[in-house]
Write a structure and sequence with these properties.
- The chain has 329 residues and is mainly α.
- The protein has 2 domains: 2-128, 3-Layer(aba) Sandwich (Rossmann fold); 144-321, Isoleucyl-tRNA Synthetase, Domain 1 (Orthogonal Bundle).
- It has helices spanning 18-30, 74-88, 102-114, 144-160, 171-188, 200-203, 211-227, 244-253, 256-266, 270-289, 297-320, and strands at 34-36, 42-45, 55-59, 93-98, 123-128, 131-132, 196-197.
- The strands form 3 sheets. Strands 1-2-3 form a 3-stranded antiparallel sheet.
- Strand 1 and strand 2 form a beta hairpin.
- The protein starts with 17 loop residues before the first helix and ends in a 9-residue tail after the last helix.
Length: 329
């Protein structure tokens, strides 16, 4: 998690809510929602006609909360949701798990509504699919740490085969950041709930729609700024940016807030990924056709400002996806 830049403010496992789950079962009973089957298990009727055509089991016949295979107990999740609302008065509660648990969360939210909690409408399940075909040199049983080590190792090899790597202060750290970008972009390119076929070769390509290409573009634009003095100018004559390639970059930059809003609404990072990849391709073309060196001073400053804006948005977008932009590659 540390390598991925992930931190948690609070940990609370199932055992923390075991006692509270008994209170929830009592609440369900008091509200007349808990029914007993012939076998003695506790269920909640979720059917519209109340004919038990759809129900959810919340209690074993011995009175303990149920542990569904590969899913946490419903009564524990009910207890956790209620406790978190009491503790944090949250605006939205998002559950992130694999898509096999979709029914579990649908039932959870339905039961909370039946219990009279209007805020159940603000609970959301974000599901993710399976990664297929991933292998490391250690075999087919995959641990995340092995994947992170493998991508860093492969990236180091790729960097060693290029001429520029010798100038990098810390090749290992750069390989780690670029490798992580490769993994994250490959993972976030499609719908989160879609399964996809993993390919090391595709993920680590330096050209094309990859995290490596994003990092390469960022490093290149950073280098351009360093070369021409990276002091931010305020008196830019934007009328100098008349070329189609400059206008394409400008128009794309204007769409950034719209893309962020869209991702915030459906919680799908693919909109940001697609936007950043297009921005990188447009910036790469503009970098070739709009030289800074040798141009008239006001044209050079306008172009430099355009490339700086593209780099800042690229860096900002990558950070949102959990990627640390590199300045050398």
């Amino acid at each position: 998690f540390q390598r991925l830049g992930v931190h948690f403010d609070e940990y609370s496992g199932e055992s923390f809510y075991q006692e509270k789950s008994q209170e929830v079962l009592k609440m369900l009973e008091d509200k007349g929602l808990l029914q007993k089957t012939i076998k003695g298990t506790g269920i909640v009727d979720l059917s519209e006609k109340k004919d038990l055509s759809l129900f959810s089991t919340v209690m074993r016949s011995d009175g303990t909360s149920l542990y569904i295979t590969r899913q946490v107990s419903l009564s524990v999740d009910l207890a956790a949701a209620i406790d978190r609302m009491n503790k944090y008065s949250w605006d939205t509660m998002i559950y992130v798990t694999d898509k096999s648990q979709s029914n579990h969360f649908q039932h959870l939210f339905q039961i909370l509504k039946l219990m009279g909690y209007d805020w159940a409408e603000r609970c959301q399940h974000v599901s993710f699919g399976l990664v297929q075909g991933m292998k490391t040199r250690r075999g087919e049983v995959i641990f995340l740490e092995d994947v992170l080590n493998e991508v860093r190792s492969r990236m180091l090899q790729n960097m060693a085969s290029t001429k520029t790597t010798k100038e990098i202060e810390d090749p290992m750290e750069t390989a780690e950041k670029v490798g992580l970008a490769a993994l994250i972009i490959q993972d976030f390119r499609g719908l989160l709930s879609s399964d996809y076929q993993f390919s090391w070769d595709r993920a680590l390509q330096s050209r094309g729609d990859t995290g490596v290409f994003l990092q390469y573009t960022h490093a290149r634009l950073h280098s351009l700024e360093q070369m021409h003095g990276n002091e931010h100018q305020t008196d830019i004559n934007v009328a100098c940016l008349q070329e189609p390639d400059a206008i394409s970059v400008l128009q794309h930059l204007l769409r950034y807030d719209e893309v962020l809003y869209r991702s915030s609404q459906d919680l799908q990072p693919k909109h940001i990924v697609s936007y950043l990849l297009t921005l990188s391709h447009l910036a790469a073309v503009a970098h070739k056709t709009l030289p800074v060196k040798g141009s008239a001073p006001d044209v050079a400053q306008a172009r430099l400002s355009l490339f700086r804006a593209a780099r800042l948005v690229l860096a900002n977008g990558m950070k949102l996806l959990g990627i640390t932009p590199v300045t050398q590659m």
